[in-house]
Amino acid sequence: MRAGVDMRGTKNATERVTEHLAPGRKRAPLLRYIRINLPRTTRLLLLLVIAIIAMASAAVALGDHEPFPYANELMWGVFGGSVVFVAVGLLTQARIWTWGLGIALASLLVYVGGLAGDAPYVWNGASVVLAATWNLTLIASVGYLVLYWALQYGMIVAAPDDQNFMD
Amino acid sequence: MDFGYPWWLRAEHFLNLIFISFLIRSGIEILGTYPKLYRSQHNVAGTAWGQFTIQRAPKHKYYTVGGEYDDYSPRISLPGRGLLGLGRYWHFITVTGFVTSWVIYLVLLIVTDQWRRYVPTSLDTFTQAGNDILAYLAFTVPQAVYGMPFNAIQQLSYGFVILVLTPLVIITGIFQSPAIANYFSRITRAVGGRQVIRTIHFACLVAYVAFFVVHVLMVVLHGYAHETAKMVFGNSERPVAGAIVFSISLVFVVVLHVLATRWTLANGRAVEKLHNVVVRPWTNLLYRLPARMHYDRSNVTGEDVGLDNTTHNFRGSGRPPENKEYLALLANGFEDDYVLEIGGYVERPMSLTIHDLRELASGHAQTTLHHCVQGFTSIGQWSGIPVADLLDLVRPLPGATDVVYTSFQDMGRDDALYEGGTYYESNPMIEARMPQTLIAFELNDEGEIPVKNGAPARLRVETSTGFRSLKWLERIEVVNRYDIILEGRGGYFEDADFYDRNQLI
User: What is the number of other CB atoms lying within 10 angstroms of the CB of residue B61?
Assistant: First the structure.
């Protein structure tokens, strides 16, 4: 056993073995070729994205342009959850990425709610800064969803996980 | 001044569309043959920060770098199918045009005062760029600065790409050349070694792709017809015509890629000829840069993985000979049986044993960085005798031009990855006489070279890529022409694949 892998008598002792190939295909889907092994950086990046959601949500909640009734309460909820998430992420090695997904989706739901209500866009009378901050909640949430998908797909890994490259 | 969009700026924009897209595709081809990126030039197993392959790590006790390639689709890479040599040819052909046009562009920017369109002349530009970012985030379109062709964040972005990213990608590309990296060895070391430089070069690729995506998005956001007309006519007075002409030029670029890919896959030798016409005139100048590396024993690959026998960590490439003659020599430890013949177009042909070589070398050693053509690097301390000293002993006859080395290795017999016959390589006399061109017979002060690294003797050509440092050396011949040997291209890989004998980059 080496790094949890049984090295004995396997197929690729003698031949090229590839992953993610559909039967009869020569090549895998393009994104399967990308595997980044920067676990600590990725962990920090995921925490940073949630921190951005937290700060942007708090800033919008503190503003004078509530997107819809009780939106501020929801955004403070997103902020609170995000603070706990970032604290747990920094202080422990827990794999909390699905919690983060909940936060990103909650933030996204607030944004979608704003579309149906009176979202703080410039054309709705909000300042440029407030509109930018509001849109930042969307961009950061979508960013987290993309990162979470990449994590599930195996393109990236977050500490304490590792790609376990052997060569 | 009225900046406008002068014709040469528009021409440069169009040429860059071609050059950068060709560079990206051929660069992906090059990456695919060693699809791993590291932070240390020792390429310690398991330490890659990124891999771009679907191949599982081979579980052989010994596997060669030759089997680590991944053949990307020709739709992505140029030409695709793991054809490194042809990918390199395209990269160098294109880079010749790209760098030439960038230098001309730079000169024109300076002499016409157009450099002001990219270089901020006031700190206010940065404040304004911050405001522009906020405006974009607010889903509004910021206005151009008064008197400027674009807004502050565009100015900084274009300035960064043209004046920072482009020189960076050129410099990190230049330092992929073994001749340059090993001549300016101290600079190579100072920036962290070849793998760090390779990683930065890759980051530049990512930056170009990211810029391209955002740039296209912004063009659409600002108005496709309005913006593309500026790049066609220099103004946006005829947006529809501009958009049509620009769109046709995009189709032209795509057609160019399709034709280049198909032509390359159908007739690689023609691409080689084009490469030799375009690239060799400037790469041959690199023969003036002899390797002068200054590594020492503490830099040798292996120590950082904590193994006592460091030679085991100098990567191997290629399969050792499996013929009876070589195996018999191996069984007897080479010392008494191995004889290196040096003959051909010389006054005094010689046969030298390992003992003779050791005596002649009188303790000479060099610690050097190995540049594999695929991308890996290792550092080893090689004991041996400079080829120049051997040539002085055998005295080449007037008119001798090249030195040909023949290996015990037969590629078709010894390596399942390849076809063909005897592995051989040749040096033009200028390369053979370089101070760090060496016949090595010992690695890292630990006795004879391990079999995987070329026992009992091998060539070290430190100004070129690794495959030209022939292993398992059987004999040396001085010749007055190399082009009548086998296919006439000067080496096994030059004959059987698409590699340049004058491979200094």
Answer: 7
> What DSSP line would sit under B19-42, residue for residue?
HHHHHHHHHHHHHHHS-EE-SSTT
| Dist CA B216 CA B21 (whole Å) | 14
What tens digit of pLDDT does each residue of B329-375 get? 999 999 889 999 999 999 999 999 999 999 999 999 999 999 999 99
Q: Which of A33, A132, A163 sits opposite B52 (nearest CB)?
A: A33
Side by side, which strands form the sheet with B50-51? A35-36, B50-51, B36-37
> Which pLDDT does position B254 carry in this prediction?
98
Average pLDDT value for residue range A52-76: 97
B177 and B141 Cβ atoms separated by less than 8 Å:
no
How far is Cα A151 from Cα A161, in angstroms, rounded to an integer?
Answer: 10
Residue B179, CA atoms < 13 Å, CB-side half-sphere: 17
Q: What is the largest CA-CA distance in chain B?
A: 85
Of A27, A136, A166, Cβ closest to residue B137: A136
Does the pLDDT value for residue A1 go beyond 50? Answer: no
Query: What is the side-by-side strand order in the sheet with B422-428?
Result: B350-353, B339-344, B473-479, B402-410, B422-428
> Contact at 8 Å (CB) between B128 and B145?
yes
* Contact in structure between A75 and A54 (CB atoms under 8 Å): no
Chain A residue nearest residue B45, CA to CA: A167
Tokens of B398: 């007037």
Closest-CA residue of A relative to B133 is A132
Average pLDDT over residues A102-129: 97
Both tokens of B453, joined, read 């690294």
Q: For residues A142 and A108, give the distance between their C-alpha atoms in angstroms, rounded to a whole number.
A: 8
CA distance B449 to B442: 5
As a three-state string, the secondary structure of B294-356 is CCCHHHCCCHHHCCCCHHHHCCCCCCCCCCHHHHHHHHCCCCCCCEEEEEECECCCEEEEHHH
- Report which DSSP code applies to B164: I
Q: What are phi and psi of B435, to 5 degrees?
A: -60, -30
Across the interface, whether the CB atoms of B138 and A131 are under 8 A apart is answered yes
Search chain B and give the residue with CA nearest A25.
Answer: B73
- Cα-Cα-Cα-Cα dihedral sign, residues B171, B174, B175, B179: negative
